[in-house]
Amino acid sequence: MGKLSLAAKITHVPSMYLSELPGPHHGCRQAAIDGHKRIGERCRELGVDTIVVSDVHWLVNAGYHVNCNSRFKGVYTSNELPHFIKNMAYDYPGNPELGRLIAARATEQGVFTRAHEIDSLELEYGTLVPMRYMNGDQHFKVVSIAGWCAWHQLDESRRFGAALKDAIEASDANVAFLASGSLSHRFNDNGSPEEAIHMISREFFRQVDERVVQLWKAGDFATFCKMLPEYNAHCFGEGGMHDTAMLLGLLGWDKYDKPVEIVTDYFASSGTGQINAIFPLP
Ligand SMILES: [Fe+2]
């Protein structure tokens, strides 16, 4: 019998990769990198064998999709920010059995989902960035779920999350789930100064994000779930905040009431709001 051992909302900002390299931004995202490493260590302590990532950089226009190749290997350059992430080599094992089971369970429960084993279907950086820091030794198998659901209802992603929990429990895997996406996600205007990499784009977004983090710290998901659609609409939710809807669907939605554990404090990156937080299991 499988189990869910850890759930978290995480950042994946590409400046984490820049932070590793020599130059003016060297070290700038060390706190976020250390947070990923701590989450990876926690997964090891819990005996996790597979990390399932809802990746808001994987855009889908119809249906729900799981990338469950048996191996992910390549050299990645971001189309969107090639000056931030370029030529990043990666190599991780996959878990096709779990991916197929997730798609089958979600489909059975009314959320039509396809599982793909296509070598040329590559990972996006919402998966690759956290795996770089949590899984550099290829300890964990990886399954990636499309989290940028362009024409989908948040409620459907909630139901996908609930089905994901059932699939995990019906599997033989010990799983960590990562909702890989930001809080507010309004980038800085083009042409902003280089130092804006550490700024929020508008104070409004910081204020809303800070209130959201307060609700999370208080375990007040009854309130947070009520405001999620407007939070997404007014604060430019990354990938429509479908990663967050899946995470909360997995945990019980508005009945979930555990105060989150902040692993990396809220920070602004290129205009957006970011955090690493573990959501204790119900
Ligand atoms: Fe992103």
TrEMBL record:
Pfam families to which the protein is assigned, alphabetical: LigB
Alphabetized GO MF terms: 3,4-dihydroxyphenylacetate 2,3-dioxygenase activity; ferrous iron binding
CDD domains xref list: HPCD
Gene3D superfamilies noted in UniProt: LigB-like (3.40.830.10)
Enzyme Commission identifier(s): 1.13.11.15
Keywords: Dioxygenase, Oxidoreductase
Start and end residues of each Extradiol ring-cleavage dioxygenase class III enzyme subunit B domain: 7-279
PANTHER family: 4,5-DOPA DIOXYGENASE EXTRADIOL-LIKE PROTEIN (PTHR30096), 4-HYDROXYPHENYLACETATE CATABOLISM PROTEIN (PTHR30096:SF9)
Name listed for the protein in its UniProt record: 3,4-dihydroxyphenylacetate 2,3-dioxygenase
Protein's organism: Trinickia terrae
